[in-house]
Amino acid sequence: MAERVDISVVVPLYNEAESLPELVEWIDRVAVENALSYEIVMIDDGSSDDSWEVIEDLKSRYAAVRAIGFARNYGKSAALYCGFEAARGEVVFTMDADLQDSPDEIPRMRRMILDEGYDLVSGWKRKRHDPAGKRWPSKFFNLTARIVSGIKLHDFNCGLKAYRRKVVKAIEVYGEMHRYIPILAKNAGFRRIGEKVVEHRERKYGVSKFGLERMLKGYLDLITVTFMSRFGRSPMYFFGGLGTLMFLLGGATTVWVVAEKIYSQSHGLPWRGVTEQPLFYLALAAVVLGVQLFLAGFLGELINRNSPERNKYLIDRRID
């Protein structure tokens, strides 16, 4: 079994060769000053610069450095997933490689996990050194995430976070879900989620690797994670319920259109043919969509029934 350490620092990176030596030296200094055994798990997300060569050099100077290199750029979520799998620390930290996150926050955030009982502590960059074009969309994004998830965090996407070991081993980060790790943790049963104001530094080297398209992806991912948390194990509740509602609404409308025509004819009132009324075709469309949604829910249940994860639950305590 791999030797357990006090802290693991998982660092996803993409073209950050210039900042890595300073970051590793800083983490090492903080760990030594606080008498912490540590490891730094670097995940090179398909960098096209000299990042991997720099990591190899750092490994020769710091025994605590470990690294995983992707063949191409897969994204931050993939990097975190592999980093979490490899982490051996009692407390696991995530930190961006651009030196905007301060390793000096590590001791206090670790105490919040171990002494104050939090499962996850997220950093809050109250004072951000980013252009307004990034700050204001981020504020709106975080407000929406707070309302939808019920988790009272100011900065869901802060790269600096601390986790109890069992949290990172229980959650699965995929797609672009790194923005919603607190929501994934809550859905897995870890509800003691805290927040700490952290220092946010100006970028020292290079440029940001994230563009405005991440805002659109962020909202699509929020819809996905919300849907999966509520209906992931029972898709029929959503698709079947919505399909049944549309089927009944369309069927009732069709009956009403036909009954209204028959009534008008029998009482000598002006009437229109059923097929001449746009409402009839809308009702038929609702019936067809209702059946399709119901079948989608049924297929979802069949897929879920045959999934190897269908009965995977987090067991926190046991008495035999």
Mean pLDDT: 86
Number of helices, counting only DSSP H or I runs of 4 residues or more: 10
Q: In percent terms, what proportion of residues is strand?
A: 5-15%
Poorly predicted runs: none
The major sheet is characterized as:
7 strands, mixed
Overall domain count: 2
The radius of gyration computed from the alpha-carbon positions, rounded to a whole number of angstroms, is 26 Å
Corresponding CATH superfamily of the largest domain: Spore Coat Polysaccharide Biosynthesis Protein SpsA, Chain A
Coarse structural class: alpha/beta
How far apart, in Å, are the first and last alpha carbons?
26 Å
Helix-strand blueprint:
Layout: E1 5-13, H1 20-33, E2 38-44, H2 51-61, E3 65-69, H3 76-86, E4 89-94, H4 106-114, E5 120-124, H5 132-149, E6 161-164, H6 165-170, H7 181-187, E7 193-197, H8 213-231, H9 235-266, H10 278-305
Parallel strand pairs: 1-2, 1-4, 2-3, 5-7
Antiparallel strand pairs: 4-6, 5-6
Describe the structure.
- The protein is α/β, with parallel strands linked by helices and 320 residues long.
- The chain has two domains: 5-231, Alpha-Beta Complex (Spore Coat Polysaccharide Biosynthesis Protein SpsA, Chain A), CATH 3.90.550; 235-305.
- The protein is 48% helix and 13% strand.
- It has ten helices and seven strands.
- The chain has helices at 20-33, 51-61, 76-86, 106-114, 132-149, 165-170, 181-187, 213-231, 235-266, 278-305, and strands at residues 5-13, 38-44, 65-69, 89-94, 120-124, 161-164, 193-197.
- It has a seven-stranded mixed sheet, sandwiched between helices.
- Strand 2, helix 2 (51-61) and strand 3 form a beta-alpha-beta unit.
- The protein is elongated, with a radius of gyration of 26 Å.
- The model has no long low-confidence stretch (mean pLDDT 86).
